[in-house]
Amino acid sequence: MADAADKQDPGRMPTLDELMSDDFDPETDIDWTGDKTFRSGFACFVGRPNAGKSTLTNALVGSKIAITSSKPQTTRHSIRGIVDRPDAQLVLIDTPGLHKPRTLLGQRLNDLVRETWTEVDIIGICLPSNQRIGPGDTFLVQEVAKLTKKPKLVALATKTDLVSGERLRQHLVEIQGLEEKLGIRWETIIPCSAVSGEQVDVVADELVKLLPYGPAFYPDGEVTDEPTETLVKELIREAALEGVRDELPHSITVEIDEMGLREGRPEDKPLLDVYASMIVERESQKGIMIGHRGEHLKEVGTRARHQISALLGTPVHLDLKVKVLKDWQRDPKFLNRLGF
């Protein structure tokens, strides 16, 4: 690696051999002449399904950009949330939960998670305080530890609002013990609750401290780079997940058939028309989603319409129907069509 004298040479760039070296560090081995007061970079939250990743992302961003549910595998895309501060821009990537795949969709979601790990500066591993650290958590940390390019690791003891002080202390000791057990090093361990807001500001501060110096990636004021259509689809799916049977959540996805502002409306009274289809895998599931005399479909539509309107700040007309695509989770053609 470059010696101390080399690093002091203004504008010196590393050689190809240095760039390829395992101990190359762009923060110390490239002469950075930019702003040394502003930090920017990427972090992702990982964890078992329902570990609180999406809820924490929303709390840090200050806006609902990722859907939340008690159902497993709620998140199916990498959602980027942007945290702007005077001293930094932190881009959070909310990923699906790593799980044992039973379908082609599951395999593709796991591939998405692992790909994201290689692109971030920090990985925050969510370990819910109300659950014991189990084989699933251990497997997840081991998988992260195998990465050739190792991001900085932060342990997040989520859901502290659900446990007593004594239980939380035990949980933090268990998290600390993973360092020796798995051969890793935590940059920091932070107990937090996205629901109560406890220590969410501390999470933001600690993540920012670990970012490299650099310019902002997105214009000030943006909270996500997700297309509006994707956000609308996800809010409809979130509404559909509420109250359905355990076997249904994996089978539900949403497709936007048409979306746009209604023509002929006054500028001060816009109306967004959304025509969407909830897609399931079997006719029996279609009946469940529609419900007796269409009552369940109507409930889903009402919940989704309110959420979409709140997110976009525009009144919404939502036309919702249910379609069957047999075994879509296992069919490459359907997965490609649906954006997976």
Brief account:
This protein is of the alpha/beta class. It has helices at about 5-10, 15-20, 25-30, 55-60, 105-115, 135-145, 165-180, 200-210, 230-240, 285-290, 295-310, 330-335, and strands at about 40-45, 80-85, 90-95, 120-125, 150-155, 185-190, 255-260, 270-280, 315-325.
Q: Report the helical percentage.
A: 25-40%
Mean pLDDT: 82
* Strand count: 9
Q: Give the overall shape.
A: globular
Number of helices: 12
Point out poorly predicted stretches. Answer: 1-16
Structural class: alpha/beta
Give the DSSP E fraction (strand runs of 2 or more residues): 15-25%
Strands of the widest sheet, in order across it, are 2-3-1-4-5-6
- For this entry, what is the oligomeric state of its chains? single chain
Q: Whole-Å distance between the termini?
A: 42 Å
Order of helices and strands: HHHEHEEHEHEHEHHEEHHEH
Gyration radius over CA: 22 Å
Task: Provide structural commentary.
Helix 9 packs antiparallel against helix 11 (295-312). By secondary structure, the chain is an alpha/beta fold. The longest helix is centred in the middle third of the chain and has 18 residues, at 165-182. The strands form 2 sheets. It has a 6-stranded mixed beta sheet with strand order 2-3-1-4-5-6, sandwiched between helices. It has 12 helices and 9 strands. Residues 1-16 have low confidence and may be disordered.
